[in-house]
Amino acid sequence: MATHTSEGDELGRTPLHGLHQELGARLVPFAGWEMPIQFEGVIAEHTWCRTHCGLFDVSHMAVIEMRGDDPAASLERVTPAGITTLDVGRQRYGLLLNESGGVVDDFMVTNWGTHLAMVANASRRDIDLAFLREHLTDVEITERSDIALIAIQGPDTAAVVTEMLAADGGDGSIEDMVFLDNRRLKLAGVEVLASRSGYTGEDGFELSVAANDADHLARALLANDLVKPVGLAARDTLRLEAGLCLYGNDLTTEISPVEADLVWTMPKRRRETGDFPGADRVQAELAEGPNRVRVGLKPDGKRPVRDGTMLFTGDSSASGDEIGFVSSGGFGPTVDGPVAMGYVAPSQAKIGTPLTADVRGNDVACTVVPLPFAPHRFHRG
């Protein structure tokens, strides 16, 4: 099973740790876990996922079950997402908010009929559990440390899963599954909860499986020549090109959903009733506009502009006004150049606006561009 120690310096290890070692992964500490940062190399792994099928170990993430008389209504007390309207077998992205309208964490939640299952960030595990138990006293909150998560992403993913379902030990169908559908399947003789989702911008599935079966399932998937292992470094470049937020960078307890351009996560009825933490700030920003907004940035040349870099107006950091910062940045293999996201004043957020990034005392010209950098290819049917 997945093991994790939240106290001391001991790192958690996922059920695929031994497989990562066999495959020659470079293992590094990440959010309290020893995780593969890369296997073959970031660019090669990124490109393989964009063109074929990449396998990701995401078992470090927190799987939290919520049970009670009406867990959906209870969860809506701490999120502006629409949970009570979530159909059985469907998944939704949402944000936990604090009283000042900042983001405690972002999450995916699935309605399984008998309960809700939330997947939250590993770095926020203890904070999220304490937050939910404090505010949802009428709900039974259980962390499922006996569950492993494997993501398979890329244009060949559906073909890989279909082939496994047709083989001995397979059962079920994905033919009518669309983005954010969830279903029970059997792959390689193993029972899985499959969600047609992921955080790369590609079509794919996230597979929830008993920790004791995870190694067998991963090896069965990797037996297909279309599937290769992908580490956390390429997972980050993939999500950045897809314009998707990373908690701790693009989302924090100080940043609101309106500033983060995530108003789409809040249905109209929730925005109007304002029955969630931080609603006063959210409603005021919706009405009057926020003080800063998240934008896409395209730096000139080949030099990446990393998170924390300050942004200025004009063509010089010395003569311009400081108007924001880079929240995520790196090299985008698909676009063959540096890409970034950041927060700027609304007056500087128009597409095509020129800005300057101060990279360790050197000016790098940037332009505000649309997100995402690489088009989403989620399977919407």
Strand portion, in percent?
Answer: 25-35%
Oligomer: single chain
- Give the N-to-C terminal Cα separation: 35 Å
CATH homologous superfamily label of the domain at 17-60 and 146-241: Probable tRNA modification gtpase trme, domain 1
Q: What is the number of beta strands?
A: 19
Explain the overall architecture:
- This protein is of the alpha+beta class.
- Among the domains are: 17-60 and 146-241, Gyrase A, domain 2; 291-381, Aminomethyltransferase beta-barrel domains (Elongation Factor Tu (Ef-tu), domain 3, Beta Barrel).
- Helix content is 21%, strand content 31%.
- Strand 18 and strand 19 (362-369) form a beta hairpin.
- The longest helix is centred in the middle third of the chain and has 12 residues, at 211-222.
- The radius of gyration is 21 Å and the shape is globular.
- The chain starts with 16 loop residues before the first helix and ends in a 12-residue tail after the last strand.
- The model has no long low-confidence stretch (mean pLDDT 96).
Give a short summary of the structure.
This protein is α+β, with helices and mostly antiparallel strands. The protein is built from nine helices and 19 strands.
Set out the fold topology:
Blueprint lengths: L16 H6 L3 E5 L2 E6 L3 H10 L1 E5 L4 E6 L3 H5 L15 E7 L5 E9 L4 E5 L4 H11 L4 E4 L3 E7 L3 H10 L15 E6 L2 E6 L8 E7 H12 L4 E3 L2 H10 L26 H6 L5 H10 L4 E7 L10 E4 L8 E11 L4 E8 L9 E6 L2 E8 L12
Parallel strand pairs: 3-13
Antiparallel strand pairs: 1-2, 3-9, 4-7, 4-8, 5-6, 6-7, 9-12, 10-11, 11-12, 14-17, 14-19, 15-16, 15-18, 16-17, 18-19
